[in-house]
Design goal:
Order of helices and strands: HHHHEEEEHHEHHHEEEHHEEEHHH
Number of helices: 14
Strand content: 5-15%
Shape: globular
Distance between the termini: 14 Å
Number of strands: 11
Radius of gyration: 20 Å
Largest sheet: 5 strands, antiparallel
Structural class: alpha+beta
Strand order of the largest sheet: 6-7-8-10-9
Number of domains: 1
Length: 365
Amino acid sequence: MGIRKATAKYVAWLGRQLALVEADLELKHQRMREGPFPFLRATFYRWAQIWPGICPELASAPEVLAVGDLHVENFGTWRDAEGRLIWGVNDFDEAWRLPYTNDLVRLAASANLATRGGHLAIDAKRAAEAIVKGYRDGIEAGGRAFVMAEHHLALRAMAVHRLKDPGIFWKKLDGLPSFRGSPPAGALKALRRMLPEPDLPWRIVHRIAGLGSLGRQRFVAIVDWRGGRIAREAKAMAPSACLWGGEKKASRRILYQEILDCSVRCPDPCVKLKGRWIVRRLSPDCGRIELWELPAERDETRLLHAMGWETANVHLGSGKAREIRRHLAKLGRGWLQDAAGRMTEAVIEEWKNWKGNKSTHKEWG
């Protein structure tokens, strides 16, 4: 099955799980042509299909509740219940029970593609070594959340550099037109339950964001509350693409809340799964960090080490630390660089095939 057919089948499957926004989906498929790195971000469904066959020696590793769609731009900042700035994995849309190696290989492959695209300046060997070392260190330490206030000075400098100017942030949200029509009742109920007070007047807008989830409904409630504005976003959820790409008889549960609850992290109290909607706070310091937002002078080895450690924070929630340590000890030197290299080349080949396809998804089938 090629990338065009796989995409058509996945879109059809996803359309049976939730309502799709056709214009946003068309935009997603256009952005997939921009380069291998955005293509990777947008096509976890294809990764779920091809990874076990390209890296079969890693597909039997101990299973954990994994991120699934992990990559170097799936990290960001938020405020915990104490108001502290926290850094870590930003999105768990594709959370699924997978070999722990899936997340590490995908993270390393994304670093390779980001380097080839000019977004990072670290070679494949050093990137893989930093990720593995961070992951090992995190597993051995039993995990530790990334609290920016007291520790991680270099990481804090990188994270704080991208904190959005409040004026610019709110100007961008205010520029979105009010949503015409009535959002789904489930989205409205989810948004109301996550506001600080009941029955606050709001303005609802449709937001276009992300790449992997582009095409899903996103509704943002903008509220004036006690002297300033706040915003909550509800995004439509579906089971992980692993369900489509793998075992069809597997549970159809959405595992977003479960992975949030069991990971070794300081959670954002305003991120909750409500029915089939994930609700989160939007603010200048709560959101995903894109590579272009990082300072020009940065320690990329330290950054990837932290990403590896944070991956361990997530995996430790599955209680498989002993099994993971044993499995890691059996892997040869350079295993991650080798596997990530194979997946990097596979993604580039898939992207080339997609780039040559000029038809739209409406013409498929």
